[in-house]
Design brief:
Helix 1 crosses helix 7, helix 2 packs parallel to helix 3 and helix 3 packs parallel to helix 5. Strand 4, helix 3 and strand 5 form a beta-alpha-beta unit. 44% of the residues lie in helices and 13% in strands. The chain is α/β, with parallel strands linked by helices and 326 residues long. The strands form two sheets. Strands 3-2-1-4-5-7-8 form a seven-stranded parallel sheet, with helices on both faces. It has twelve helices and nine strands. The protein has a single domain, classed as NAD(P)-binding Rossmann-like Domain (Rossmann fold, 3-Layer(aba) Sandwich), CATH 3.40.50.720. Bound molecules: nicotinamide-adenine-dinucleotide (NAD). Nicotinamide-adenine-dinucleotide binds next to helix 1, strand 2, helix 3 and strand 5. The site of nicotinamide-adenine-dinucleotide has 32 residues, from helix 1, strand 2, helix 3 and strand 5.
């Protein structure tokens, strides 16, 4: 299939493009910043650019991963988020419908399910988050614009019947957490595989599964995150003493962590449940917390990437992004 991949220079895009190509797809990358998988430099916020790419490359389906996201909040005004994340999604949806596509995949974020109260962990138990979680009260312009984009996808699918899948992915970024609080980055990322992270390779494969299933599913919003070992009944314990709950499922975790100087989390405030994605899309991430412990046990490299110096290419394409809101 001739696939338009937006955000092809970004962290997800640079992993997804070669995987799509390996499956025989002809990939056209569109991004505001140059990169080895980007054939067209331009913004999704420009309908002219989108129409030109569709015509020049005879596009047959879209994976829309390009966006301004959380780290961009300090770099771009709110209007740029609306232009890129909302107008850009509308442009792509309308172009896909006009071209008669039967499928469309949009990358969204679990972060739009995190209200200020969930973020502040005011509850006496961990919050269990699946696709049915409501009300949705995103706490920043990133979440607000991603939710608006999701709703455009829902509306467009309802009106036209084009298959549309929205993937709410949890964390897969390689850089350090923006809180820069302890524990160190590798330890924190490892902990997050219990409840709120997946590898970028698994995030890419989730998109491929979604692309395959979209026409048959119609419309679906799915969480993509490493399978959690926890149950809903663990929520009180996770908030009170997460390490005890983890020891229950992984008795060897303490010793393996101690050997590396790592620490288990004291408390966990939220858990993403991606089981519906496995049921409906037939996709289960290859890497989970058990994989991390196996690597610690055998001395194999950690099964996730860490790059403290990673900065989104959107900064390189800032002139084009800002042009949209001029
Ligand atoms: N990184 C994570 O942990 C994470 C978590 C949840 C969801 N997501 C979502 O995954 C997707 C990919 O994120 P990423 O981690 O690869 O981020 P990234 O910043 O590395 O990549 C995003 C890409 O989009 C491009 N872009 C920005 N504005 C654009 C525009 N107007 N037109 C065309 N391209 C534009 C950027 O230049 C960049 O290359 C995004 O939709 C993001 O919201 C990321």
């Amino acid at each position: 299939m001739r696939v338009l991949l937006t955000g092809s220079t970004g962290w997800l895009g640079r992993h997804l493009a070669p995987r799509l190509a390996a499956l025989g797809h002809e990939v056209t990358g569109l991004d505001v910043a140059p990169g080895p998988h980007t054939q067209v430099i331009g913004s999704v916020a420009s309908r002219t650019t989108v129409d030109r790419v569709f015509a020049d490359h005879s596009i047959e389906s879209v994976i829309h991963a390009g966006a301004l996201h959380k780290p961009d909040i300090s770099r771009f005004p709110a209007q740029a988020f609306i232009d890129t994340n909302v107008t850009g999604t509308l442009n792509l949806l309308e172009a896909a419908v006009a071209a008669g596509h039967d499928r469309f995949v949009m990358t969204s974020t679990t972060s739009l399910m995190i209200s200020q109260a969930i973020r502040d962990e005011v509850s006496d138990h961990a919050i269990w988050l699946d696709e049915a979680h409501a009300p949705l009260q995103p706490r920043n312009i990133y979440g607000v614009t991603k939710l608006a984009a999701e709703n455009l996808c829902r509306q467009m699918q309802g009106e036209t019947g084009m298959g549309v899948i929205v993937l709410r992915t949890s964390r897969f970024f390689p850089e350090d957490d923006d809180t820069h609080a302890p524990p160190p980055a590798d330890n924190l990322k490892a902990n997050e595989f219990l409840h709120r992270r997946l590898t970028v390779e698994d995030a890419a494969d989730a998109h491929i599964a979604a692309l395959e299933k979209a026409p048959e599913i119609g419309f679906g919003v799915y969480i993509a995150s490493a399978p959690t070992p926890f149950q809903r009944s663990d929520c009180a314990g996770l908030k009170r003493d997460a390490a005890a709950v983890i020891r229950h499922y992984f008795p060897e975790a303490d010793a393996l962590y101690a050997a590396r100087g790592w620490i288990l989390p004291d408390t966990i405030g939220r858990v993403y449940d991606a089981s519906r994605t496995e049921q409906d899309l037939g996709f289960r991430p290859a890497t989970d917390f058990g994989s991390v412990l196996s690597a610690l046990k055998t001395g194999a490299p950690l099964p996730f990437q860490h790059d403290s110096g990673y900065v989104s290419p959107s900064t390189l394409g800032a002139a084009l992004v800002s042009e949209d809101c001029a």
